[in-house]
Amino acid sequence: MSNGLNATRRAEVFKRIIGDSRYESILRALRMPETFPSMRRYFINTVFDSTFVVLGVIIGTALVADPAQRIVMLTIITSCLALTMSTAVAVYEAEKMEQRIRILEIERAMLRKLDRSSIERTSRISVMLIAGVNAFAPWLAATVTLVPIVLIPDLVTGAWTAIGAAITLLFLTGLMMGRIANKDRPVLNGFRMAAIGVVVFLLAMLIERSI
Questions:
Q1: Rounded to an integer, what is the distance from CA 46 to the centroid of its chain?
Q2: Measured at the alpha carbon of residue 151, what is the angle toward residues 146 and 152, in degrees to the nearest 5?
Q3: Is 168 helix (H, G, I), strand (E, B) or coil?
Q4: How far, in Å, CA of 87 to CA of 82, rounded?
Q5: Is residue 142 within 8 Å of 76, Cβ to Cβ?
Q6: Alpha-carbon gap, residue 15 to 8, rounded angstroms
Q7: In 3-state terms, what secondary structure has residue 111?
Q8: Are 84 and 135 contacting, i.e. CB atoms less than 8 angstroms apart?
Q9: What residues contact residue 172 under an 8 Å CB cut-off, 6+ apart?
Q10: To 10 degrees, the CA torsion angle through 127, 128, 129, 132?
């Protein structure tokens, strides 16, 4: 009962913030069959991409002679900003194209145009939600790795802690994937993703040491 009341209160708060019509439009977009699967798929892909990029940044800037905290932090932030822009735009354009194809198919079936219809508006909101959630993914990787670098005075120790945090993030993402896919052993899926992160880390270390 308390969960139902909390959900109702949250709904009322959101309605007051964004308005009843926008709230209902967002709900309709979230109920579309492709919205949540697309959110989940793009988010997981971008988390992996961002985490691997951040691992490379840390190895290339923090685990070198005379590392500078400011350079490490700026490189992580600017790299994640670039990933945010590139993936958000790419996802937006790709989903916009797919939704347009879907609307054209519905128009052919209904023998009428759907411009400015509720279906077209809901599809547009769905695309924006998918792109927006995907744009958040790089900052998850950035936050997980920046926190130890900022809080631990010794930069090298903070960098190694950040690497451990990044690999842990890969494990948790793999674990989530395994649970969503109803795999018998989601923990093994988590370890598999973490192992890939370790391999990438070792390869990046090898390249850094050889140059």
A1: 5
A2: 105
A3: helix
A4: 8
A5: yes
A6: 10
A7: coil
A8: yes
A9: 190
A10: 130
C-alpha 28/C-alpha 5 separation (Å) is 21
Phi–psi pair at 33, nearest 5 degrees: -60, -25
Residue with tokens 């309605």: 15
- Residue 143: in which H helix or E strand, if any? helix 118-151
Three-state secondary-structure class, residue 1: coil
Contact (Cβ atoms closer than 8 angstroms) between residue 61 and residue 71:
yes
Burial of 33 (0-12, 13-18, 19+ CB in 10 A): exposed
Crossing angle of helices 20-31 and 2-18, in 10° steps, is 120
Structure tokens at 80: 């994640």
Residue pLDDT tens, the chain, 211 long: 455 556 677 767 667 677 667 777 788 888 887 888 888 888 888 998 899 999 989 988 888 878 899 999 999 999 999 999 999 999 999 988 988 888 788 778 877 776 767 777 888 888 899 999 999 999 999 999 999 999 999 999 999 999 999 999 999 988 888 887 766 788 888 899 899 989 988 888 888 778 7
Instruction: Fill in the amino acid letter for 131.
Output: A
